[in-house]
């Protein structure tokens, strides 16, 4: 049969477009390390990531899928090439008196015992089995890459959850300081109200501001509780797993993004490697479907013993010998082979289109997170100037109060302004930390595909 022409125009990714904008320029230009979370120099974070990578059930599922794919490879390899086996049998049969054999065979019972050594060899002239093995190897590589992707996603999720929890605690502590100042301010206004030196509106406004701060503090407490439980679930810990987690101020490492992405990004992202290997696996299935159109020649042989009684089985005249060859040549099958090949090619084109889209999406993800980090850095630089100005105002207020030129309320309000600027700084730091981890994950989280020659 004639193999149908492949009219597909599907192509691989356009690496000319697989770059981030030249305007994205962070201080360092490098790829993440394999254990990138250690750059935060936080032993607690290191221990949490290690616990998650050790105990999370989702990783066990990924590893089980890798084992299943390896078993499929072994099965395909077992079906290729030659095979040798031993067959034995024993039958007791009555032959018909009116059948092919006349008496005394007809109408009597006879035993039939046999033992044979059988061998066969499939030459795989057109590479059908080799293509199916390549497809199974591609599936295995894809499963390995998916397992690596699961590890990277889990590590990033643990880091983001832990860092977010620490920043919520930091904002809680800052709000507690604001509440203490507000209570001091409220006490002063109530005292002035009792002395007839201020109106009731001043005291009521101070009470309202205190209530707003307390509401904010409760919201932080709720969010921290939720984040704590999310982190505990990620590491697979018991209810007491995070009981001794200390409050620390995260120190973000210096931001970095490679100067160029392109081909290197494919080797750095496990999800892109998985997509690529799925395409390669499907290419093997297409080749196997094309090989099904061609004739298949196999050899078979057997040598053994056969006798009508066990006593004669081991005698020389009981020997048997078989040599043979089979030719399988498809001529007409109602379009079954055409349909199978068309389906295999369509699946190949679909996987290739998904691969191309994944490459561009990955580049876009890196560009978005890098641009966000660059913007946060600019916002932080501007905020530093505002925070310094607020601090100077607070210091001037205290100096004026020491000379009797300013009230205590003025000083308390200036200190509150400093704490509010600190809260803004904490929000910017939180955004930086979250985006750093997101960028690290977008760059592959330290993964690097090894040279793979399984399909050669």
UniProtKB/TrEMBL annotation:
Record keywords: Lipoprotein, Membrane, Palmitate, Signal, Transmembrane, Transmembrane beta strand
Keyword Transcription regulation part of the UniProt annotation: no
Location in the cell: Cell membrane; Membrane
Main location as per UniProt: membrane
Pfam family, one: OEP
InterPro entries: MdtP/NodT-like (IPR010131), OMP_efflux (IPR003423)
Gene3D superfamilies documented for this protein: Outer membrane efflux proteins (OEP)
Membrane-related topology note: Lipid-anchor
PANTHER family per the UniProt record, alphabetical: MULTIDRUG RESISTANCE OUTER MEMBRANE PROTEIN MDTP-RELATED, OUTER MEMBRANE CATION EFFLUX PROTEIN
Similarity-based family: Belongs to the outer membrane factor (OMF) (TC 1.B.17) family.
Protein name: Efflux transporter outer membrane subunit
Species assigned in the record: Massilia phyllostachyos
């Amino acid at each position: 049969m004639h193999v149908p022409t492949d009219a597909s125009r599907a192509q691989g990714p356009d690496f000319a477009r697989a770059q981030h904008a030249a305007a994205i320029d962070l201080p360092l230009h490098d790829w993440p390390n394999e254990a990138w979370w250690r750059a935060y120099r936080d032993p607690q974070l290191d221990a949490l990531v290690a616990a998650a990578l050790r105990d999370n059930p989702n990783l066990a599922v990924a590893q089980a899928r890798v084992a299943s794919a390896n078993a499929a490879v072994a099965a395909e390899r077992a079906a290729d090439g030659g095979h040798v086996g031993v067959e034995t049998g024993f039958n007791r049969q009555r032959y018909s008196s009116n059948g092919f054999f006349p008496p005394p065979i007809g109408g009597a019972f006879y035993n039939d015992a046999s033992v044979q050594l059988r061998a066969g060899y499939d030459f795989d002239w057109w590479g059908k089995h080799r293509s199916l093995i390549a497809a199974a190897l591609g599936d295995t590589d894809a499963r390995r890459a998916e397992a690596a992707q699961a590890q990277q996603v889990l590590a990033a999720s643990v880091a983001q959850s832990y860092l977010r929890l620490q920043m919520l605690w930091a904002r809680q502590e800052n709000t507690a300081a604001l509440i203490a100042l507000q209570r001091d301010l409220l006490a002063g206004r109530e005292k002035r109200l009792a002395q007839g030196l201020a109106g009731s509106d001043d005291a009521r406004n101070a009470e309202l501001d205190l209530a707003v701060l307390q509401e904010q503090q409760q919201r932080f407490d709720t969010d921290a509780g939720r984040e704590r439980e999310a982190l505990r679930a990620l590491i697979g810990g018991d209810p007491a797993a995070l009981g001794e987690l200390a409050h620390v101020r995260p120190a973000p490492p210096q931001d970095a993004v490679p100067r160029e992405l392109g081909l290197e990004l494919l080797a750095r992202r496990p999800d892109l490697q998985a997509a690529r290997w799925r395409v390669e696996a499907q290419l093997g299935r297409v080749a196997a479907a094309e090989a099904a159109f061609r004739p298949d020649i196999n050899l078979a042989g057997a040598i053994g013993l056969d006798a009508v009684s066990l006593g004669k089985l081991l005698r020389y005249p009981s020997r048997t010998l078989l040599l043979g060859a089979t030719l399988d040549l498809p001529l007409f099958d109602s379009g079954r082979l055409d349909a199978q090949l068309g389906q295999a090619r369509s699946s190949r084109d679909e996987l290739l289109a998904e691969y191309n889209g994944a490459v561009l999406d990955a580049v876009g993800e890196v560009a978005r997170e890098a641009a966000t980090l660059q913007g946060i850095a600019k916002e932080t630089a501007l905020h530093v100037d505002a925070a310094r100005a607020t601090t100077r105002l607070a210091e001037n207020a205290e100096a004026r109060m020491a000379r009797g030129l300013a009230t205590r309320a003025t000083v308390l309000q200036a200190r509150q302004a400093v704490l509010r600027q600190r809260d803004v700084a904490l929000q910017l730091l939180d955004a930086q930390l979250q985006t750093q981890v997101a960028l690290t994950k977008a760059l592959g989280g330290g993964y690097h595909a090894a040279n793979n020659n399984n399909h050669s």
